[in-house]
Amino acid sequence: MAVRPLLEVRGVDKSFGAVQVLRDVAMNVFPGEVTALVGDNGAGKSTLVKCISGIYPIDAGQVVFDGRPVTVSSPKDAAALGIEVVYQDLALCDNLDIVSNMFLGREKRSGIALDEATMEQMAHRTLASLSVRSVSLRQPAASLSGGERQTIAIAKAVLWNSRVVILDEPTAALGVAQTAQVLELVRRLADNGLGVVLISHNMNDVFAVSDRITALYLGRTAAQVRTSEVTHSQVVELITVGYTGSIGLLPDPGSYEGMGGRS
């Protein structure tokens, strides 16, 4: 029996004034898989993520979660569904320790006092489930390496029974060893049954961990393909011209190309 997508984006449009940033965009995210979302600067990747996560309202189209249409009007709505986004800036507070960062804004309380023991247990359990054992729960975020910071930000996202985790360029500022560490964690998230969306410009990362690729070109979905069925050069063509061979959008000399985009 075919596996149903956990998250579906169907025919989504989004405009800012006269500029149409997304047009008829589609994307499917499956449980237990990594879907790489790729596209050139201005292709609409960030806008699409902000529509999925409730930061921007969509103008047309539909978001379907676990088989039912949903309205995501705010990040709180997205979190209630189990959609979490780890943005490039990570949103960690350097002066707080790992436990405090993971529960920031969602602290557990016992009466009026913080329930430090419960939070520490939950943080430990989450990190252990992701096979993360190299950090002390009470060390400040300022002392963490880039790879460790990214790891904690991802663990924070999956702490709340998340089902879809969207990662925005998680290896952009990392060295080789730290990149490998984060990619292992990305793969582990999918192996634990989550649907993972990896936004990346790095084709080596994309081909290392993704099961599927969704390529955007000038605000449109150029293709949704299995990673095993395309080559690096074909994905680059999808990103830069919107098609490769028989895959993707037909060449369009119309006015849309001249409109540019916003990511």
TrEMBL record:
<feature type="domain" description="ABC transporter">
    <location>
        <begin position="7"/>
        <end position="243"/>
    </location>
</feature>
<keyword id="KW-0067">ATP-binding</keyword>
<dbReference type="InterPro" id="IPR027417">
    <property type="entry name" value="P-loop_NTPase"/>
</dbReference>
<protein>
    <submittedName>
        <fullName>Sugar ABC transporter ATP-binding protein</fullName>
    </submittedName>
</protein>
<dbReference type="InterPro" id="IPR003439">
    <property type="entry name" value="ABC_transporter-like_ATP-bd"/>
</dbReference>
<dbReference type="Pfam" id="PF00005">
    <property type="entry name" value="ABC_tran"/>
</dbReference>
<dbReference type="InterPro" id="IPR003593">
    <property type="entry name" value="AAA+_ATPase"/>
</dbReference>
<dbReference type="InterPro" id="IPR050107">
    <property type="entry name" value="ABC_carbohydrate_import_ATPase"/>
</dbReference>
<keyword id="KW-0547">Nucleotide-binding</keyword>
<dbReference type="GO" id="GO:0005524">
    <property type="term" value="F:ATP binding"/>
</dbReference>
<dbReference type="GO" id="GO:0016887">
    <property type="term" value="F:ATP hydrolysis activity"/>
</dbReference>
